Structures are given as C-alpha cells and as structure tokens.
Amino acid sequence: MDPASIVRKGCPVKLVCPQDGKAILWTGLAVGDRNRSVSDGGTDVPANEFPSSWRNELMRFTITLTAATDDRPTSGISIAVIERDDDTLTIDDLGLRIAESKRLLAALQLAVVQTQALDWCRRQRACPCCGSARQIKDHRSIMVRTPFGKIAVPSTRFRRCTCKPTAGIAAPIVAALPERVTPDLLELEARWASLASYGITAERLADVLPIGDAINATTIRQDTLRVAERLEAELGTERRCFIEGCEADWTDGPLPGPPVTVGIDGGYVRSWYDRPNNFEVIVGKSVVDPGEDGEISEPTRRFGFVVGHDDRPRRRLHELLLEQGVGMDREITFMSDGGRNVRNLQWDMRPNAEHVLDYFHIAMRVTVMQQIARGLPPPSETDKDVAVATLERVRHFLWHGNWRRALDLIGDVETRMLGATDPDVTDEPMSHPQVSPQARNLLKHLREFESYISANASMIPNYGERRRYGEAVSTAFVESTVNQVVAKRFAKKQQMQWTPRGVHLLVQLRVRTLDGTLANDFQRWRDERKAA
User: Do 384 and 313 lie in a common domain?
Assistant: First the structure.
C-alpha cells in the first residue's frame, strides 16, 4: 500500500520494513513533509532517516475532468496520472514533457468529445413532435479529425417515433456534425500549407500536436484546397466596369482617405501538364500612402491569380479594394509593366484612377538594346556609337514623359541600321545577307520596344516630376510581393511542378496568410454556422 495515499486521508498506518521486519507507526503527516517524524514505540524517528523502501518515491499528479450540466449532477472523469521521482529534481523531470502533454491533450479531447456527444444524444431522444422517448436502434460512431487527434464520436441512432406516419431512423450526431474536420484543424492546415510544402506541414503538425497517423501530405492538400474553393465560391461575378454611382454620390460622403498605390507584376511557375514550360501568376500589392501624420491608416493587402485559369480577376481586385476601404472617391494609382494581361486588369476600376507604366521595365529594355548595339561588328563602329547615344536620348525623353519624341528616335535608329540607300535591305532586313546577326537582333528589339511604347503611351507620365514629388515611378515594391507569394512557395529551391488550379487556390490562401486575414474568414464561417 502506498503510504502517501493513506497519509492523505489522515489515518495512522503501521509500516513494516521488508528487510528487517521492523514496524513503525506512521501518524498521518503532510504529503512531502520530510522533516517531521513519526512515532516508533515512543521514540520519534525523523522521516528523512527512513529506509528507502519505506519512503514514497513517486509523486503522482492525477488529472480529473469534471463535467457539470444544469440538469445532471457533477461527474468526474479520470484523464491521466503523471508520475515524478519524489527524491530528486532535475531539469529532465521538470514540468511536462512534450510526449506527456500530447497524450494529455488527446485524452482530454476524447473525454470532452464523448461527454458532449452522449449528452447530446440523451437530449435528442425525446420526439420533437410528441415528446415521448424514441427507441434506440443501435450505437455507432463517426470519425472526426481534430487538432488533438482523430476521435470516434459516439452516435446513437433512434427509431422513428410512432407518431410519424413513415418509418425511419434519426441520427442526431450525424445531423449536428455534417463536417468531419474541425475548423481549428482546417485553419492550421491552410495557414501552414500556404507557407511550406504539404509534407513539411504534416511533419510539423505531428511534432506539436497529438495527431499521429491521422494526417499526411495528401490529407493536408485536400483540406487546404477545399478551404480555398470555399473562398472562391464566395467571390462575385465578373464585370467589365466596376465604377458605380455618379459623381454627386461620391462627393456626398466623408472626406476620402489618403491615396492608394496598386502595383501589379507577374511570376512564373513550372507546369505539370505542359512540361517543361511555365505558366504565369499575376501578383499585386495595394499600399496606402502615409497620411499627414506619417502613419498608414489601412494595412497593406495582396492578391494573386493564375493567368488563363481565373475567370474573375477584375472582381478579385475590386473586392480587395473594397475590403481595404477604397471607395469611388479615392485617388488610386495603378502601376504595371504594361503587359496585356495586367493592362486589361486595371481599367475601369475607379473613376479617379491614374495608370502608370513601370519605368524600370522601360529602362531595362533600353539597356538591353544598348548592350546589343555595343556588340555590332565592323564596319559598323559609327553606327554603333550613334545607336548607343540615340538610345540614351530615348531613355531621357521617356523619363520626362515625351514618348512621341522617343518613338521618332527609335525610328531613326531603325533607319540607320537598315541602310536607307538600299531599298532591298529596307524591305527584308531580317533575311538580307548584308544585315549581320547582331543587327537583326537589334532591329528585332527595336521593333518590339516601339510596339511596347505605342501600346502603353497613355500610361507614360513625367517620371522626373513624379520622383520630385516623392511618388512611385516603378513597381519595385511589388517585386518583393512576387518573391513572397510565388517564388518562396512555388519556385525557389523546389523542384515541384504545379497545376494551374493547385497554384491558383493555394495563392488565395497564401495572400490571406501574409495579410493576416485568414483567421477572419474562419471566424465569419463560425458566426454563420451559429446564426443558421
């Protein structure tokens, strides 16, 4: 018999040493009080001089769950017993170990779930029509995955009451739990899977939670994409124009907030279907300019979608602006690289919108053409120097917003490279033997750049003036977003190949995780279930 268990009750007990048979009388002492003594035939014996076989060498922590309801008495459920050596204290035995905490959480979750389920079945036994107790058909169980393990939830089924005209069965647990994965687990899976691979997510969750074999990479991928599909189902329909109301309505409200800058750029992901090609992912970032006090009133928001897969990109951008509080009266600047996909995305979103072409892409293209011109072979030394100098002037005119003069200079470079005195060369420059391969390459880039500037002429402002006023002239702030949303999860240091659907759905979760709004979606769904 454990002396400590008797001492707790305050009862004296006679203890016999197993070695010499000597008996002492232990009068009920406080547990763990080693400095007090007990009576041994009229002689007090200090407790710390007891033989080791007489001492209580284990400290036991008993954890009991008490369940109490208004109509039922309190009941206790034993959850776990934790033992520690009572004679020594080391850092290894201090507090709970991870394995013990996981077993404790799993046992506690099992006890709570089973108690809830049994109580719910008991309450639902009465017929909702006549109130009589329905007959029990059988006792089954349904499996529910939680952050603390896979739980077999007791499910009692009842026969249809005799007051009903048709026969049948009622399963209160099945009706109450149509979903078999708890929202907490889904939120953890969605958040972690948006930041790391599915396999790593499964390993990390198993490290900190008592999930065991109930979770793997495939399960996490299915749950994660199901959450993203639910978010996609809540998105509205696509429209050509999202400008609503009239100017009088826009000015009737309170004063608009500070201007907003939306940068749009793209990245590429390896394709699973079309190997070894890639497909494009458009990523954007909406940043509110600091106010007069230097503080940003609204948080930064991100969005993304897969080109060709998403059929509602403009609706997606519109909803993001609404969530950020960007109304029709707000000043907003859209910055992009001028590609057709992003150019069509930003039109007719807000009436006070300004569209700006990213100057970095302009300067990058001019730099490439200058490098090609410097590599022209002899006897094109004069043409080479003139082309490099002229392209530098093109850069200068575009910086100051004079795109018409820049197009004229591009035409001058083309004419000089073609050799205007030879009409045959002018007609077929890309295949004429007098045109060197380096010159053909330069002509190709010149014509592409000319088309690029012509298509985006309305988006070329005076960059020098914008810079003097402290306004953005490039989408450099979006490059980090492309790295955050696309590269770190889908490209960098990973050899994975993706489907457009998988990337698109995962991007929706990743941008919400980076923005810190994913928890708001789950809380909204909880509120909807309670209100239903």
Answer: no
